Amino acid sequence: MSIDARIQEFARIAAAPKAQLAKYKAQGKQVIGVLPYYAPEELVYAAGMVPMGIWGTNTKTISRAKEYCATFYCTIAQLALEMLLDGTMDDLDGVITPTICDTLRPMSQNIRVSMSKKLPVIFLAHPQNRFADWGKKFCMDQYLNVKRELEKIASKAITPENLQEAIKVYNKSRAERRRFTKLANEHCDVINPIKRMQVLKAAWFTLKDEYTEMLKGLNDELEALPVCDWKGTKVVTSGIICDNPKLLEAFVENNIAIADDDVAHESRSFRTDCPEDMADPLEALAQQFANIDYDVLLYDPQSNQNRRGEFVAKLVQDSGAQGLVLFMQQFCDPEEMEYPYLKKALDNAGIPHIKLGIDQQMRDFGQARTAIQAFADVLSL
Description:
By secondary structure, the chain is an alpha/beta fold. It has a domain at 3-161: Rossmann fold (3-Layer(aba) Sandwich). The chain has helices at 3-15, 17-26, 41-46, 75-85, 104-115, 133-154, 160-186, 193-201, 208-223, 245-253, 281-291, 307-319, 333-348, 366-379; strands spanning 31-34, 50-53, 94-98, 121-124, 233-239, 256-263, 323-329, 353-358. The longest helix is centred in the middle third of the chain and has 27 residues, at 160-186. The radius of gyration is 20 Å and the shape is globular.
């Protein structure tokens, strides 16, 4: 299979998650919707069910969700509820609602109130103080509750052996996605920003063993190619999500490649492996969450040192990029509060950047295109 044909398969999945849902249901599988982010998908997989990411959509208009949501909720959360309310995801067998930010906390209750008669809603509260033993214990208790609720839906127990195997499957997938982002940087003549997004986005709608096999085939093909001599510019992207093809078209039009990313929907989701050498796989999942670092939504006891800002600046330097594009999700308080510290770290490192305010209701990209074009001109000087 050619590289283009392989990429088209990822693009098809990324563009039509409902078709993926229908496919798995036709196979007799149960499917669990998983809202952002850091939910332990391994538990769903270990139960023999399909975890399917719910990250909003670029194709719908918020209507029914307005009955439940304040207007200042981010559109990712509002559109997730919209799809649950309008029947788009009626085939789901349950949904997991993490509460990692101030929007997702009340949103989890909105989903519980609006959907409880339609499908099981599994509440998940992560600890912010995740490093101490009591923080890990709290995390384990939360994961244990998720496990029990999933077992009710699946009508079978999630065994330690199955969970341990699921952890290995997911670690293998994370490794293959990290390999892909490296190869995408080396072959940005083949993997443009739109294709890169499509390949990574497809992971949210595909069983991880299937996805990893697909991605390994693409990675092997890319690895066989000579490293390209890229004549354009390279950037690192940062933010919660940047999956709109129309917005990414501006990168392609201006000969901008993505060297690496600090995006929650992309590399942050597979940056940290789960330990495979712990006796209790549930404890291993809690330890994985404790090991996650440099995330704007997670408590950092050393935040006064601007560790995350320096991490992002080093990411740009190590990737060979000339600058950073920050996709600032509208009404995302953590990102807005972090920006001055991120800007300070980038300025101290001499890294140019632009900040683009985005949401999933954007239909006019003229201003963003102009900003990206101007940034490309600056980087090429």
